Amino acid sequence: MRVLIAEDEVLLRRGLELMLLEAGMEIVGSVGDLDALLATAEAARPDLVITDIRMPPRFADEGLVAAAAIRAARPQTAVMVLSQHVQRRYAMELLGVEDPGPDGGVSRMPGRVGYLLKQRIADVDAFVGDLREVAAGGTAIDPEVIDIMVARAARSDTAVARLTERQLEVLALVAQGRSNSAIASSLFITEKAVVQHISRIYDALGLPLASDAHRRVLAVLRYLSRGAES
Length: 230
Known about the structure:
Blueprint: E1 2-6, H1 10-22, E2 26-31, H2 34-44, E3 48-52, H3 62-73, E4 78-83, H4 88-95, E5 113-117, H5 124-135, E6 139-141, H6 143-156, H7 158-161, H8 165-175, H9 180-187, H10 191-205, H11 213-225
Parallel strand pairs: 1-2, 1-3, 3-4, 4-5, 5-6
């Protein structure tokens, strides 16, 4: 896998380089600002871009802007955005799940995207696994963002509030992009039980069953966004 890293903190950038090289990935670029990120992405055409959200010149949302531009130019390029703090809005923008309008929200960019807190890098195996999942066409969203969205939706939406504690746990893992087998392993239940929980959750939320993993993640995130304040 050919990877481009964009991070203005030199030590973290170097650490990412070493980590990914040890994981068997090829580093095609390692940069520290928005202009260099966009130029290198165009020239090197990486399979995966890992970028901080805030970087020079404004230290605002440059990484998010770059992610959108890179995906618009080359939809097959996967993007993993890293953040120092939980920002639900960033996750929604990246995944293409807008806060609801008259039509209840839209999905623009399913798959090949991820949003994680930088602290997740410490778990090397899990982080590398998330990178591979995103590069393969999946999604990865930080559990802390999901927890915030589920908690807010449970307080503000009667449908989510009616879910059982176990169903809320399953819902959170579905929103993270976990497969049924991974959810079963995490909760120490059978995969058949997971399927039953998901079916009941979808019924309670009025969501259609989706065979495609990305669609089911986006459907859940879109629903949760209705009960979560920015």
